[in-house]
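input
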Amino acid sequence: MSATARIEMSKTLFSLPRLHRAAHGEERKVTWLELFYDLVYVAVLIQLGNVLSEQISLEGFGRFVILFLPLWWAWTGMTFYMNRFVVNDLPHRLLIYLQITAIAVLGISLEGAFTGLTQQFSLAYAAIRLVQVLLYVRTWKHEPATRPLTQRYVTGYLVGIALWVVAGFLPMPYAAGLWLLALAIEIGNAFLPGTRALVSLLPPDAEHMRERYGIFIIIVLGESFIKTITNASGTAISLEILVFSLLAIFVVFGLWWLYFDDVEAAEIKHRLFAPYVWIYAHLPLSLGITAFGVASKKIFASAGEDHLKSGYVVLYCGALILFALASAALELALEQEHERKKDWRRAGWRLGMAAAMAGLMLFGASLGALGFIAVVAAIVLVVVALDEWPHIQEPR
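output
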């Protein structure tokens, strides 16, 4: 092995974490390790969808939300770390391996998180956060400029970890209460004035963040296809099912369109809370899309029937309402080609979509599967057309 090769291997095995400086024009690309890391969330989200699918009710949806919150927050925490620091050596990869293992255990525990696997679920999540702490501890010695912010993150995580561990030894509903308290402390820590001041000194790379969150939205959108295709495996395609499928796929395509169409042309506003609105609007957005995937599977299973179960309609419409409201918040946090009127106009179309879906929730069950999906597709088509109308008048 040549000396150059040995040096390169040494850099791969042991290289110190360094701060990514987006303000200096340094480009930050999504790494192969980040994409591999996302794969485990694909499997976990499938399991989470199965939990909701088995209990479509107000209680079932409440449990689904409680389980979704820590998943999204764990992914977001890792995304921020990888956005701010550049590191890909052997110790880092081993820590990511340990976190992936803990996430897999968390996914296995989802179905019994509220019954016999509460302790396993709680301790698995505590392990995920502990790895996050170890990652930040590695940066402490090598990047002194980040120590004040790192200290705040680590403190919040350690408090959360302690609560998750205690929750593992409590019965329901006390364990779930501690889960929510731990998440409230960690998320609330990010909004403290001192934390926000430190973040403003070390801002994340906006382009990398948009790409990472966009990838996550692609993942949850893909879940709707996975669930529906899995459920429909072996189904003979009749004309009615073909028409239903074309309309249902258009709805998914429309959701993709509403999120991604102008994502390259828009920038996150630099106003005080706009970046926070943009980041945290992705929580209800991704939650809504995940629930939409479950509802899509249920509606497809009812194709050919003259009447739908009201629970399926409420879940489907409610999921799209969440998507529309979160999408409206995203539009207000973005600047579309530096035209403020466009931001409000696009947000308004999405609020109109939420209102239309709320109305459809009341009578959609009586339309049958084909009629229901046709109305939904028409609503989505109108919103997409309204978004595109200015581009038709003034080509990009």
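quick obs: Confidence is low (pLDDT under 50) at residues 1-10.
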